[in-house]
Design a protein that fits this description.
Layout lengths: L3 E6 L13 H5 L2 E3 L4 E5 L6 H12 L16 H7 L2 E5 L6 E5 H28 L6 H15 L8 H12 L5 E5 L7 H16 L3 E5 L11 E7 L2 E5 L5 H11 L1 H5 L4
Parallel strand pairs: 3-7, 3-8, 5-6, 6-7
Antiparallel strand pairs: 1-2, 1-4, 8-9
Helix pairs in contact: 2-3, 4-5, 6-7
Organism: Ornithinibacillus xuwenensis
InterPro entries: AAA+_ATPase, ABC_transporter-like_ATP-bd, ATPase_AAA_core, P-loop_NTPase, Siderophore_ABC-ATPase
Membrane topology: Peripheral membrane protein
Length: 261
């Protein structure tokens, strides 16, 4: 399902403030989404993450933990860019989320704090009055946390808890914007994430993913866009520089390593 069909930048007077001064943003005109998965590739600093943030603010996405983006001051520059984007929809979905790798740690810590607070409140209320109905909301919170996250994301390895969180939060008919989701994942766990993404695509999910990972770039049902020479270009998998460089390195690492000395 293609929920978001296209994004275009409105033709307004040039703005020389960040992020409008990024060469890619200056050159950008429009982008069409033709496949359930869109991969956005670019070197550090090209603006791909900022572009994804701007999309998220325009869409009104929530963070993976349910927080509203309007409360995040770090997104102020991206929000200004998002206001200059015009989005075209097939059917606008309210499901999905915007994910940044650093948000995962914050969410994990917040869940652990909520769980500990609920346990403490239950203990205090039961000591005061074993039959009190005041325990119900706290018991319900613990039940939900255990249902979705088991013992807790904090007791699992970073990669495992990361995938647990995705598994709990993915829903059919969602639009998911993922910024470098490979960050905490081993190659094997990246394959697991790919499988989860494919399952959601089969349930009318749409994904826009900014990544450096040649593994994620190989996702089926994906179209790859590369920011190259400050312009967004469609590329086949084998023509992406990240893929070619990784392939060349793995086939002959000594050719690259001899230059380190």
């Amino acid at each position: 399902m293609i929920h978001l069909k296209s994004v275009a930048k409105r033709n307004k007077q040039s703005n020389h403030e960040y992020p409008f001064n990024l060469p890619f943003i200056q050159q950008f005109k429009e982008m069409h989404f033709r496949y359930p998965v869109t991969i956005l590739v670019g070197e550090n600093g090209t603006g791909k993450s900022t572009f994804l943030e701007a999309l998220a603010t325009n869409i009104g996405s929530i963070l993976i933990g349910g927080e509203n983006l309007e409360n995040d001051p770090s997104l102020t520059p991206a929000r200004k860019l998002g206001n200059e984007l015009k989005l075209t929809w097939t059917i606008k979905t309210k499901k999905g989320f915007f994910f940044r790798a650093n948000d995962f740690i914050n969410f994990t810590n917040r869940l652990a704090a909520i769980k500990e607070e609920s346990k403490q409140k239950l203990k205090e209320i039961r000591e005061r009055d074993p039959n009190s109905l005041e325990v119900l909301p706290y018991a319900s919170t613990l039940h939900d946390l255990n249902h979705f996250y088991g013992e807790g994301l904090e007791v699992r390895s970073h990669g495992e808890s990361f995938l647990d969180l995705f598994q709990a939060r993915f829903q059919p008919n969602g639009l998911y914007l993922l910024d470098e989701p490979e960050a905490p994942l081993s190659p094997l766990k990246q394959l697991t994430l790919m499988s989860m993404i494919n399952e959601m695509v089969e349930e009318n999910g749409q994904f826009i993913i900014a990544t450096h990972s040649p593994i994620l770039m190989a996702l089926p049902n994906a179209e790859i866009f590369v920011i190259e020479d400050d312009v967004l270009q469609r590329k086949s998998y084998g023509d992406v520089e990240h893929v070619k460089l990784t392939r060349d390195f793995l086939s002959s690492p000594e050719r690259f390593l001899r230059h380190l000395n």
